[in-house]
Design goal:
The complex is a heterodimer of chains A (595) and B (617). With 595 residues, chain A is of the alpha/beta class. Chain A has three domains: 186 residues, ABC transporter type 1, transmembrane domain (ABC transporter transmembrane region fold, Up-down Bundle), CATH 1.20.1560.10; 114 residues; 241 residues, P-loop containing nucleotide triphosphate hydrolases (Rossmann fold, 3-Layer(aba) Sandwich), CATH 3.40.50.300. Helix content of chain A is 64%, strand content 10%. In chain A, helix 5 crosses helix 6 and helix 13 crosses helix 15. Chain A is elongated. Chain B has two domains: 195 residues, Up-down Bundle (ABC transporter transmembrane region fold), CATH 1.20.1560; 242 residues, 3-Layer(aba) Sandwich (Rossmann fold). Chain B is built from 23 helices and twelve strands. In chain B, helix 20 links the parallel strand 9 and strand 10. Chain B is elongated, with a radius of gyration of 35 Å. Classes of the chains: A alpha/beta (595), B alpha/beta (617). The interface between A and B is large, with 161 and 154 residues.
């Protein structure tokens, strides 16, 4: 069969019985909306499996009641019946495929939107904890492996199972004794299948690991080629890669040997059962205990029985890995939300009054990042947090934005504790403008609208105009409808920041949290960014995480965070004169500028 | 270009300047020529494994013979054994014998087929990797890692698939041909009726693949779009959370999921039309056999055994006919893969050793560098020359800082000395010898470079330093680490020198990585050291450590520093200001600061860049 069978499961990913049961129940529950279609698909497949066996039975009837006794009518009846069965088989199979696909694809769509929706509900601690690559792969490779199953595997699995069952039942009805005798080889095939399944799984894992090493070695060889050439080490690298590549080859060959032992067993078992049907069946016919037609039907059914058996052992891997994928996806769906709306939560009041009350915080339990920070920010006040890397200055801002909840103490906006606020109302009045202007695929307008999905084009223009950059964006090739391309490669770093500022302007929040960019942008745009920033801050409460002291200089007050404590707080000039941390920071900074 | 030295042209270095990028080259190259190259690669690969390919063919034929024999033996068993009271045992045993032959050959075929595929794949992958390692810098500038990866991986796998399919295809072909011959010899008319519908399976198979292809592409396209939404959202989760855009992104995904479902259902519709037809078509043959054959039996013109054997033959032929439809498509895919691989192999390494390379003088003073009237433009950007008529002499043992604005050409100038690129005009001499007359390997052992971005291999710290000189003793490696100021932090790493670094290893800070790179270069003990100082801000408290490391590394050898920070500039004996690809001023840092306005401007810009301190959590 095709190469797409090369799937397999991770030994460690295998589910125990309990987990399997849970996955099954969960899956059935999720299929419930499509239950009627699912049942119809199954019924159609049962019908199809039955039609597949009608052929040999009609041949039997034609031989026994037509050919051997010379009855032309029976023969003709059998032929007509055969044609009818073929038509029925076509119709039922065709409908079954279409129906099954509809159920499967709807299930996948629901799973995709469900899992992704749940991910989006999660707050920052979740994203800090989970590896982003893993999250992406849950939504892509894990669901894609289910897709392959839905498109092909499931159909083949169900059909093969039904065919096998139907064949055995038919043969039992025809002659149980002959069936038992013909199936004498069966235990060997079963044993071989189990062994093959286990071994090939192991081999597959080994191959997969080797492919991983080879690919990473290949990638390293290509991306490090300049260093390799700079030190004239090409030969060493080539030898080293050849070694890795050889390892891959050897692992492949070990896996090939397993298949080379298994396939002949099945092939031989097929031939043996045919031989036994001819020999023993013939002997029974001669004995008068069986008709020639029955032997013929036996032989014909046996020809089609070994195919499904072989398929099943291969499909089993696929089903198992699908189970493992589902288990992981359901795990994500069940992941509790760390930041959630309380049952009696209310909307965030439209206020710019921020009260940080004796707040402590730790990202990792036991490693305190903030301790006992207290500070009140008045409506319309601008405050900058400064301090060494890792001291916690951005953590303060993140708590105000409710990316995290404080471990101790409280943050109140307009007098309301953030934990009593409905999470979906937060961003109407508090907006975080991150360091780099991150763009999503789509147009400039789409990117700005991100912050307020129901904004009209006019709203967007107004927002851009408010920060004085409408002209700049209208000058783009397609104006606001210019595609920004993947990850915004067409806009400059400064323009991306402007998009980010425009998003904030569109929301028109009471509290603005600015995470200042560390890297500077092109000098031309830099000036525009500064002007836009200034007009955006106008009339709002601003909390700036400042990396440049020139920014701090422009704020009403400066808070110096050192080792998780707010050690100094006051206007820039006062702090410079106070001969404390800030004085030192400022001196170092001005020295840096002058050097 | 007219004044390019003749020997360069002789070296073939002017080949295909604008077609550096493989993907664009593929578009412009003569397609038929390329296809021929792909098939040729396939053919030579097969020829190299002639013997085992032969074995594969032999066992395939054996398998087919066993399979073809069984229906004949069944027929004989029924007609002679059952109906005529002949010996049942003989026919039973003969069927067993045929089964043994076919299954033995099947096992061998599987082994040989995959062995051939993997041997050829493995050998080609070695070749491709070695080739990539030897290709010049400008080639790598023009080709993305991902593209090269896919040639050395996906394309090779497609190629391997087809090699593996060879014995299988042969077996199926022989099986079909043999069965058809046996059937026609037995009863031509019945054979014709039985087989009439079978080509339909093949035709349907091919049509199916054709019809399915656009939908499969559609599904892949939609999957990719969905993946983009997921990747973007997760990468930009801070933005999503910061602006409360969860709903917008969920909606974006919902649309993609709906599109994907729609495309997948389109594909399923194609499947639902063709799969049942392919499944049922052989039944028409079976019906015909029963109808015509049954009447023949009634007339006494055919035995029941033959009727049954025809039934078995029809069943036997379904699978081969179905997959033979795919063989052509597979072969085409392999040829396409072959084209892409052979394209890569056809690129000539542009920086090659001359036939009779000169050797560098070994007596002191060592490390004198002379750039004379150097002009250079990057391949593909000939209209934007980077260096013009640049002349600069660096004395043995001298340290020179190259200073200039971004894009002034200072990094380019430094990368011409180790011949990462060849000059378009003028020449570069190391200790009096034109670098193009040296073996590049020897040249690069004499000139070491510390790149702006440090590349660390997926290996231990020790191995990463020892990369500079694989023969170095442990003491020498430790000494290099000490001189570069890396020793202190290395000893604090979890496993010291044995700590795994690189992409999946422990992540080191920019400054730490840079010190490892310096250690690597010190260990190589070159006569000329080129340091491309990182522009990205280094933690100010660590700056002096790097400065100490640099000054240690600069001891007793010619050093060219591409400097951004006043602190690094101060280490050099002489400062050379480069602007728009020319040397515009030279002197000490203090002299230039006092006398040159442009120098002050360039420095001011650099300082501004460097002064934004690192991020925060």
């Amino acid at each position: 069969m095709g190469m797409w069978f090369a799937g397999g499961t991770d030994e460690t990913e295998k589910l125990d019985r309990q987990a399997t049961g849970k996955v099954l129940r969960r899956t059935l529950a999720r299929i419930r909306p499509y239950r009627a279609q699912a049942m119809r698909a199954c019924a159609l497949l049962v019908l199809f499996a039955m039609t597949s066996l009608a052929g040999p039975l009609l041949v039997r009837r034609a031989i026994d009641q037509g050919l051997t006794v010379g009855d032309r009518n029976v023969l003709n009846q059998s032929i007509v019946a055969y044609v009818a069965v073929a038509v029925l088989a076509y119709g039922s199979y065709r409908l079954a495929i279409a129906t099954l696909a509809r159920v499967g694809e709807s299930f996948l769509r629901d799973l995709r939107t469900g899992v992704f929706g749940r991910m989006l509900q999660q707050s920052m601690p979740f994203y800090d904890r989970e590896n982003t690559g893993v999250l992406v792969s849950r939504m892509t490779s894990d669901i894609d492996s289910l897709q392959v199953l839905v498109q092909l595997g499931l159909l083949m699995f169900v059909t093969a199972t039904l065919l096998l069952v139907a064949s055995v039942v038919t043969l039992i009805v025809l002659d149980p004794l002959l069936l038992v005798l013909c199936m004498m080889t069966m235990p060997f095939v079963a044993l071989a299948s189990i062994k093959f399944h286990r071994e090939s799984n192991r081999a597959y894992l080994a191959v997969r690991e080797r492919i991983g090493t080879t690919l990473s070695s290949l990638q390293e060889g290509i991306s490090g080629v300049r260093v390799v050439q700079a030190f004239a080490r090409e030969d060493i690298q080539i030898d080293r890669f050849a070694e890795t590549n050889k390892g891959l080859y050897q692992t492949h060959m070990r896996s090939v040997k397993i298949g080379a032992f298994y396939l002949p067993v099945v092939e031989l078992a097929g031939a043996l059962s045919t031989a036994l049907a001819v020999g023993l069946g013939g002997w029974m016919v001669r004995d008068g205990r069986m008709t020639l037609g029955t032997v013929a039907a036996f032989i014909l059914i046996l020809q089609t029985m070994f195919g499904p058996m072989q398929q099943l052992s291969q499909l089993f891997n696929m089903i198992q890995s699908a189970g493992a994928s589902l288990h992981k996806l359901y795990g994500l769906l069940d992941e509790p939300l760390t930041i959630d709306s309380a049952p009696d939560a209310k909307d965030l009041p439209a206020s710019g009054h921020v009260d940080i009350d004796n707040v402590s915080f730790e990202y990792i339990p036991g490693e305190q990042v903030l301790s006992g920070v207290s500070l009140t920010i008045d409506e319309g006040e601008r405050i900058a947090f400064v301090g060494p890397t890792g001291a916690g200055k951005s953590t303060v801002a993140k708590l105000v934005a409710r990316f995290y909840d404080p471990v101790d103490g409280a943050i109140r906006i307009g007098g309301v504790d953030l934990r009593d606020v409905r999470t979906d109302s937060l961003r109407r009045h508090i907006v975080v403008v991150p360091q780099e202007g991150f763009l999503f695929a789509g147009t400039v307008a789409d990117n700005i609208r991100l912050a307020k999905p129901d904004a009209t084009d006019a709203d967007i223009r107004t927002a851009l105009d408010r920060i004085g950059v409408l002209d700049l964006f209208e000058r783009l090739p397609q104006g606001l409808d210019t595609e920004v391309q993947e990850r915004g490669s067409r806009l400059s770093a400064g323009e991306k920041q402007l998009v980010s500022l425009a998003r904030a302007a569109l929301v028109d929040p009471k509290v603005l949290i600015l995470d200042e960019a560390t890297s500077s942008v092109d000098p031309g745009t830099e000036a525009i960014v500064e002007v836009a920033m200034e007009s955006l801050m106008e009339g709002r409460t601003v909390i700036a995480i400042a990396h440049r002291l020139s920014t701090a200089e422009r704020c009403d007050r400066v808070g110096v965070v050192v080792d998780g404590r707010l050690v100094e707080l006051g206007p820039h000039d006062e702090l410079v004169a106070a001969d404390g941390h800030y004085t030192e920071l400022f001196a170092a900074w001005t020295r840096g500028l002058a050097a | 270009m007219s004044d390019r030295p003749l020997e360069l042209i002789a070296l073939g270095s002017v080949a295909r300047r604008e077609n550096e990028n493989l993907t664009t080259a593929a578009l412009t190259a003569d397609e038929r020529e390329a296809t021929r190259a792909g098939w040729k690669l396939l053919w030579t690969s097969i020829k190299e494994e002639r013997r085992f390919i032969m074995y594969g063919q032999i066992v395939s034929v054996g398998w087919s013979i066993g399979r073809i024999a069984i229906p004949v033996l069944v027929q004989q068993g029924i007609d002679r054994g059952i109906e005529k009271d002949g010996s049942l045992v003989v026919w039973t045993l003969l069927i067993v014998a045929a089964g043994v032959l076919s299954s033995l050959c099947l096992g061998l075929r599987r082994y040989v087929a995959f062995r051939n595929g993997r041997v050829i794949e493995s050998r080609l992958r070695d070749r491709v990797f070695a080739h990539i390692q030897r290709l010049h810098f400008s080639f790598h500038d023009a080709n993305a890692t991902g593209d090269l990866m896919s040639r050395a991986n996906t394309d090779l796998q497609n190629f391997q698939d087809v090699i593996t399919m060879i014995p299988l295809t042969t077996g199926q072909f022989v099986l079909v041909a043999g069965a058809v011959i046996v059937m026609f010899l037995t009863h031509p008319v019945l054979a014709l009726l039985a087989l009439a519908t079978l080509p339909l399976v093949n035709v349907l198979g091919r049509r199916f693949a054709q019809k399915l292809h656009p939908s499969i592409m559609g599904v892949q396209r939609e999957s990719a779009q969905l993946a983009t939404v997921v990747e973007e959202t997760i990468a930009g989760v801070r933005v999503v959370k910061g602006f409360g855009a969860e709903g917008v992104r969920a909606e974006a995904l919902r649309i993609e999921a709906e599109d994907l479902r729609h495309e997948s259902l389109t594909a399923s519709l194609v499947r639902s039309r063709y799969l049942p037809a392919m499944e049922i078509a052989p039944n028409l043959g079976l019906i015909a056999v029963l109808a015509y054959g049954g009447h023949l039996v009634l007339e006494g013109d055919l035995t029941v055994g033959t009727l049954i054997s025809f039934n078995i033959y029809v069943m036997l032929l379904i699978q081969p006919l179905r997959s033979m439809g795919m063989t052509v498509a597979n072969a085409q895919r392999a040829a396409a893969a072959g084209v892409r691989i052979s394209q890569l192999l056809a690129v000539e390494p542009r920086i090659a050793s001359p036939e009779r390379p000169l050797t560098l003088p070994t007596e002191n003073p060592l490390g004198q560098v002379e750039f004379s009237s150097v002009a250079f433009a990057y391949p593909g950007h000939e209209d934007e020359p980077v260096l013009h008529d640049l002349t600069l002499t660096i004395q043995a043992g001298e340290s020179v800082a190259l200073v200039g604005a971004t894009g002034s050409g200072k990094t380019t100038l430094a990368s011409l000395l180790p011949r990462f690129y060849d000059v378009d005009a003028g020449s570069i001499e190391l200790d009096g010898i034109d670098v193009r007359q040296l073996d590049p390997q020897a040249l690069r052992r004499a000139v070491s470079i510390v790149f702006e971005e440090t590349f660390l291999f997926q290996a231990t710290v020790f191995e990463n330093i020892a990369f500079g000189d694989p023969d170095a003793s442990e003491d020498q490696v430790r000494r290099a680490a000490r001189l570069s100021g890396a020793e202190d932090f290395i000893e604090q790493l979890p496993s010291g020198y044995q700590t795994l670094v690189g992409e999946r290893g422990l992540s080191l800070s920019g400054g730490q990585r840079q010190r490892l790179a310096i250690a690597r270069a010190i260990l190589a003990d070159p006569r000329v050291l080129i340091l491309d100082d990182a522009t990205s801000a280094v933690d100010p408290t660590k700056e002096h450590e790097i400065r100490d490391a640099l000054s240690e590394a600069m001891q007793s050898r010619t050093t060219i520093v591409i400097a951004h920070r006043p602190a690094t500039i101060a280490l050099a004996d002489r400062v050379v200001l480069i602007d728009h690809g020319r040397v515009v001023a030279q002197g000490t840092h203090t002299e230039l600061l006092a006398s040159n306005q442009r120098y002050r401007e360039v420095l001011a810009a650099e300082v501004k860049d460097a002064n934004a301190t690192g991020g925060d959590r």
